[in-house]
Amino acid sequence: MQSITHLAWGKVVMRRIALATSIPPRLVRNVDGREVGQEYQDRCVKSWIRAVFRILSANFADEIPILAERYPQVHFLPIERPESGWKAPSIRDLLRALVDQEEDIVGIINADILLDSNDWLNPIESAVHGAIVVGRRLDIDSLDLETHDAYLSGFDLFFFEREAIRDLSNRPFSIGKPWWDYYLPLLFRLRGLEVRLLVVPHAFHLKHPTAFDLPTWRF
Fold this sequence. Notes:
This protein is of the alpha/beta class. It contains six helices and 15 strands. The strands form four sheets. A seven-stranded mixed beta sheet has the order 7-6-3-8-13-10-14, sandwiched between helices. Strands 9-15-11-12 form a four-stranded mixed beta sheet. The chain is globular, with a radius of gyration of 17 Å. Mean pLDDT is 88; it is low at 1-12.
């Protein structure tokens, strides 16, 4: 699926959004005693591509060979492993990657988010000027997507104009660490830009046990 905006001097101009994430080498998810992590991750990646996003995944160098073979439509970017030993890239890594892309609109998505098949381009394009567009997930217990609960304690999708992130300050936030999903919306708001909530289309998330680290949360 591709979205064409116009023809310019005989050249097709594609409307796309560069979307950054960090696909894990192995995702573990369980549904009724059955391991579905790989199946679910494959469905997530396919849903991003179907929605006409161009996918960038920031990963440690030793993770890339097997992931690149598994997902040839994803562009993998090597990053250095942090001294803290945290398994996910920093927000700085993702922003640096996005600043260098050609798309005017870019974004960040959690790797275990499954998108529905509706139009994503138009709602984002209509809301992103002078703002950061954030999206919440619907938590699901199975892969049929029929039963879900709204997750109201954070965000999993972020879209913004590429030029708006050139001078963002750096803080030690990484995907999955406490408060990481509030970092960008707060920075945009403090700079006088708007924070807009994307209600539809829907993004789904297969529930899984979470590890809570109180010292990190307080820090």
